[in-house]
């Protein structure tokens, strides 16, 4: 897409009388010579100021260039900047870079740009922007004179010249950042009735880019601005009836499928090289070897541990043996030589070592039932009355009581568990019997039961949370934000709180007379749950049924799993990517994006669309033009870069027909070249003989200044006076202009004029440019006047 | 400079013979120059259009008025006509399947969808 204009070499062959025509558009900047059929240079109206990586210099790049060359620049701290805010030039530093580049590409030489300049601007350009532009051109480039005109008007006049539209008409110009409606009466634009909507091609591209990157978040890096622009030009169209087109796509009809286009990103399938079998075998062998090694190590460790424990146990048993032999009085002296303080300690150590030895050998642990035997001596103090005990013993008794109750509790729990197990076993057995009787019926029954139960549970859960936390979208803290709905429990709580707060002072306060009154506080507490037990029971039953179903039914998928599955459907699953994943579907986007020209509301711009705006423009027309409305609607010209969408004219026609009286004439035509016609119109305007009467010269600038520019307004119908100027006859006009100008003396000083006529040339005249070049030196009468 | 950069002629020369005032003189290097331009809004304010109420067209009054028709509501995700609005995210949606998707969307995406029609919450 990069447009790099060639440097022109024939600048010096143009007389200073010949104006330079500049179409200063928001998207492209076009410049060329008056009277030519095409602009000499065209580039994106953008400036980029990156830092050169190697030298660290700040450089200026105008227009868009080969992106491959940008690797030499550090673009992290700069980006493309435009001199435009909406369609008004506001950054004149950037404008100056752009103009520098333009004149340089045109091959400008000498100490100043010694040509009149015709530049396009937006409709009703703010004065400060216009005067800054004049200041820049006059004071920095030394331009002798200027003319400002509206691009769409030039485009309309150009088409009028070619007989495409008539002198009364409407120009609908949809540009890069804005769209305008300009009514024409007798060949002159009626500025009072113009209207503008701040929606243009930029918005369409931006919308497309955003929609695509939201639809394909993992390709976001591929969806660049340039790509979106390209896709827009290639695929987008305007739907004749937007609602019907939407329905078509919503139903997924065949027609919609045909209209769907695709953009395939380059896809390189991940390499799936099959490893050679011997390699696999080698790897398996290696793995096996490593596993064997680990097993060996583990076995060795086990063996050493067992032998260690055995020797320890042996030692301990020896010790016990010795202790048996020792006299009662000598126990303590004997024990002091060991690490143990008492016989009990020694015994417990023996017990511990035996246990760990068993564990190491993998034998079942000795159950602790043994302790039952010593129960009576363990809790020896419990049955002794308190009065018989010393304070220390009392303490001991308390401890024993505590120990006893806990161990009993544990025992009871065990018992209960065991019973439950039994019950379940029994239930299962019953189930199994039933199943064997009639497997299908049983399965059906179980399924129904499962469905019932799970639904009931879900219902309860929903009631409890009311979905407020189900999607994790926000509010995950569980608090209740403003505007959140309360669930039933929360509502009940709120009700209780408010009644409690407001029933004060109503009659007698009997609160607390009944015990149930105090329940209120329990119900008010934040995490109060009324019937948790049945809920838990249901849940347990559901769990049982789930396992049961999983056992007997292969097709069964638990509901919770299903939800999991559904939840993950949207999230890209980690699986090998295929070509399909690199394919972007452009279905509804094809006409959804250009639709914003007709419904700017879609992107939040609160303005009327193109068709409605046309009606508004017609209404705004001053009363004396009312009878011209019919003839105006019979010559509606569509131009501007955004009018390139297919189907735009027919849509506009349909839209405007709605607001016009029944059977009134209506004709919508596309301009010959919606993009270039403005420049061409401007170029032929600048070549007209009367052009010099329309200029704003540097003298005017010094004499009148801003107020002069405020009043400044060109007459577009000049072209009609000038007659049809054909490109081939241009040189004559240009020369005539020059003669005329020197007579009037408006184009700067006469001396300047004389000296900088056509330069003398020894070589053959510049006729290399076959089509575009109109100035032929031989036929120029000026040449004969030269010495 | 690399040869291909030079040959592409992409870099703008800082000095041109045809200029009366060079860029470097206008904006001297190393000097803080602040912002020397106005945004369009400021420009329009400075134009003081209210003072010229003689019905002459200006940049502001040629702007198209809001549409007289009620704006159609379209699904933010699919673009189809949207009869429903999600009260939590205020996204419009066309059918229950889209609603499910909306509820799965992270907040960032919700905001991006909303900002497409200029309805996102802007924190200042």
Structure description:
The complex is a heterodimer of chains A (787) and B (124). Chain A contains 29 helices and 20 strands. Chain A has 787 residues and is α+β, with helices and mostly antiparallel strands. Among the domains of chain A are: 13-46 and 82-163 and 676-785, 2-Layer Sandwich (Nucleotidyltransferase, domain 5), CATH 3.30.420.40; 293-366, no CATH class. In chain A, the strands form six sheets. A six-stranded mixed sheet of chain A has the order 3-2-1-10-11-20, with helices on both faces. In chain A, β13 and β14 form a beta hairpin. In chain A, α3 packs across α23 (677-687) and α20 (610-620) crosses α22 (648-659). Chain B has a two-stranded antiparallel sheet. The longest helix of chain B has 10 residues, at 107-116. The model of chain B has no long low-confidence stretch (mean pLDDT 87). Classes of the chains: A alpha+beta (787), B mainly alpha (124).
Helices, strands, pairings?
The complex is a heterodimer of chains A (787) and B (124).
Chain A: E1 20-24, E2 28-33, E3 41-44, E4 47-48, E5 51-52, E6 61-62, E7 73-74, E8 84-85, E9 88-89, H1 92-106, E10 117-121, H2 127-141, E11 145-150, H3 151-161, E12 169-174, E13 179-185, E14 188-189, E15 195-197, H4 201-215, H5 225-235, H6 242-251, H7 254-259, E16 261-264, H8 277-325, H9 331-336, H10 343-361, H11 370-373, H12 375-378, H13 391-437, H14 439-465, H15 488-502, H16 519-524, H17 532-552, H18 559-569, E17 583-586, H19 589-592, H20 610-620, H21 629-633, E18 636-639, H22 648-659, E19 668-670, H23 677-687, E20 696-697, H24 698-704, H25 706-711, H26 718-722, H27 730-744, H28 750-755, H29 781-785
Parallel strand pairs in A: 1-10, 10-11, 12-18, 18-19
Antiparallel strand pairs in A: 1-2, 2-3, 4-6, 5-7, 8-9, 11-20, 12-13, 13-14, 13-15, 16-17
Helix pairs in contact in A: 3-23, 4-5, 8-10, 13-14, 14-17, 20-22
Chain B: H1 3-8, H2 23-26, H3 40-47, E1 84-85, E2 92-93, H4 96-104, H5 107-116
Antiparallel strand pairs in B: 1-2
Organism (chain A): Platanthera zijinensis
Biased composition (Basic and acidic residues) (chain A): 360-372
Region (Disordered) (chain A): 357-378, 460-485, 750-787
């Amino acid at each position: 897409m990069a447009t790099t204009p060639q440097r022109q070499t024939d600048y010096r062959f143009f007389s200073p009388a010949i104006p330079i025509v500049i179409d200063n558009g928001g998207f492209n900047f076009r410049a060329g010579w008056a009277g030519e059929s095409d602009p000499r240079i065209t580039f994106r109206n953008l400036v980029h100021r990156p830092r050169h990586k190697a030298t660290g210099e700040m450089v200026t790049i105008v227009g868009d260039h080969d992106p491959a060359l940008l690797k030499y620049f550090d673009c992290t701290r700069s980006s493309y900047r435009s001199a435009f805010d909406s369609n008004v030039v506001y950054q004149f530093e950037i404008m100056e870079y752009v103009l520098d580049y333009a004149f340089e590409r045109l091959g400008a030489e000498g100490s100043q740009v010694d040509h009149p300049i015709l530049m396009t601007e937006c409709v009703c350009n703010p004065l400060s922007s216009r005067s800054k532009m004049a200041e820049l051109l006059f004071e920095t480039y030394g331009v002798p004179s200027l003319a400002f005109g509206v691009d769409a008007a030039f485009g309309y006049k150009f088409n009028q010249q070619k007989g495409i539209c008539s002198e009364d008409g409407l120009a609908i110009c949809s540009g890069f950042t804005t769209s305008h409606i300009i009514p024409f009466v007798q060949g002159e634009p009626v500025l009072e009735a113009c209207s503008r909507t701040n929606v243009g091609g930029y918005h369409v591209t931006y919308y497309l880019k955003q929609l695509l990157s939201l639809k394909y978040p993992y390709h976001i890096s591929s969806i660049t601005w340039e790509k979106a622009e390209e896709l827009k030009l290639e695929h987008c169209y305007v739907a004749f009836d937007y609602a019907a087109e939407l329905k078509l796509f919503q139903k997924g009809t065949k027609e919609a499928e045909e209209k769907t286009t695709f953009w395939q990103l380059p896809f390189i399938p991940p390499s799936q090289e099959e490893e050679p079998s011997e390699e696999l075998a080698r790897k398996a062998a290696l793995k096996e070897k490593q596993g064997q090694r680990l097993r060996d190590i583990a076995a060795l460790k086990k063996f050493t541990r067992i032998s260690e424990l055995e020797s320890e146990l042996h030692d301990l048993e020896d010790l016990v043996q010795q202790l048996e032999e020792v006299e009662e009085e000598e126990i303590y002296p004997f024990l002091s030589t060991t690490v143990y303080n008492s016989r009990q300690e020694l015994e417990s150590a023996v017990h511990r070592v035996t246990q760990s030895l068993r564990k190491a050998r993998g034998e079942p642990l000795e159950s602790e039932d043994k302790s039952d035997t010593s129960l009576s001596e363990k809790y020896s103090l419990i049955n002794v009355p308190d009065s018989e005990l010393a304070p220390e013993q009392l303490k001991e008794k308390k401890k024993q009581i505590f120990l006893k109750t806990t161990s009993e509790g544990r025992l009871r729990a065990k018992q209960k568990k065991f019973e439950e197990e039994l019950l379940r076993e029994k239930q299962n057995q019953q189930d199994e019997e039933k199943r064997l009787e009639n497997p299908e019926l049983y399965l059906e029954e179980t399924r129904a039961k499962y469905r019932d139960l799970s639904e009931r549970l879900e219902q309860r859960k929903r009631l409890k949370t009311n979905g407020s936390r189900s999607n994790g979208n926000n509010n995950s803290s569980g608090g209740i934000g403003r505007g959140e709905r309360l669930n039933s429990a929360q509502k009940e709580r709120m009700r209780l709180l408010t009644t409690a707060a407001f029933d004060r002072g109503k009659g007698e306060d009997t609160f607390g007379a009944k015990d149930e009154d105090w329940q209120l506080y329990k119900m008010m507490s934040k995490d109060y749950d009324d019937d948790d037990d049945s809920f838990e029971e249901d849940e347990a039953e559901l769990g049982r049924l789930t396992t049961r179903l999983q056992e007997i039914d292969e097709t069964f998928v638990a509901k919770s799993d299903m939800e999991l599955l559904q939840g993950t459907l949207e999230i890209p699953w980690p699986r090998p990517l295929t070509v399909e994943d690199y394919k972007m579907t452009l279905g509804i986007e094809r006409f959804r994006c250009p639709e914003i020209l007709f419904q700017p509301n879609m992107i939040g711009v609160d303005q009327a669309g193109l068709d409605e705006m046309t009606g508004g423009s017609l209404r705004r027309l001053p009363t004396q033009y009312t009878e011209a409305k019919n003839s105006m609607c019979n010559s509606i010209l569509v131009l501007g870069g955004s009018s390139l969408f297919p189907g735009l004219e027919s849509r506009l026609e349909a839209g405007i027909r709605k607001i016009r009286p029944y059977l009134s004439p209506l004709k919508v035509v596309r301009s010959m070249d919606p993009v270039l016609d403005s420049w061409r119109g401007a170029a032929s305007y600048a070549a007209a003989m009367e052009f010099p009467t329309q200029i704003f010269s540097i003298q005017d600038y010094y004499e009148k200044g801003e107020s002069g520019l405020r009043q400044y307004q060109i007459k577009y119908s000049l072209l009609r006076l000038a007659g049809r100027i054909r490109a081939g006859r241009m040189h004559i006009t240009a020369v005539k202009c020059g003669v005329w100008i020197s007579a009037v003396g408006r184009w700067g000083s006469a001396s300047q004029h004389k000296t900088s006529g056509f330069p003398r040339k020894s070589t053959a005249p510049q006729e290399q440019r076959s089509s575009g070049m109109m100035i032929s030196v031989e036929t120029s009468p000026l040449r004969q006047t030269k010495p | 400079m690399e040869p291909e950069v030079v040959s592409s002629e992409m870099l703008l020369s800082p000095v041109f013979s045809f200029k009366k005032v060079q860029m470097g003189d206008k904006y001297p290097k190393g000097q803080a120059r602040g912002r020397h331009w106005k945004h369009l809004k400021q420009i329009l304010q400075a134009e003081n259009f209210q003072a010229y109420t003689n019905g002459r067209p200006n940049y502001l009054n040629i702007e198209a008025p809001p549409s007289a028709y009620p704006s159609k509501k379209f699904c933010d995700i699919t673009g189809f006509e949207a009869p429903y609005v999600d009260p939590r995210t205020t996204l419009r949606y066309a059918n229950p399947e889209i609603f499910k998707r909306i509820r799965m969307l992270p907040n960032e995406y919700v905001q991006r969808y909303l900002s497409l029609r200029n309805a996102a919450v802007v924190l200042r």
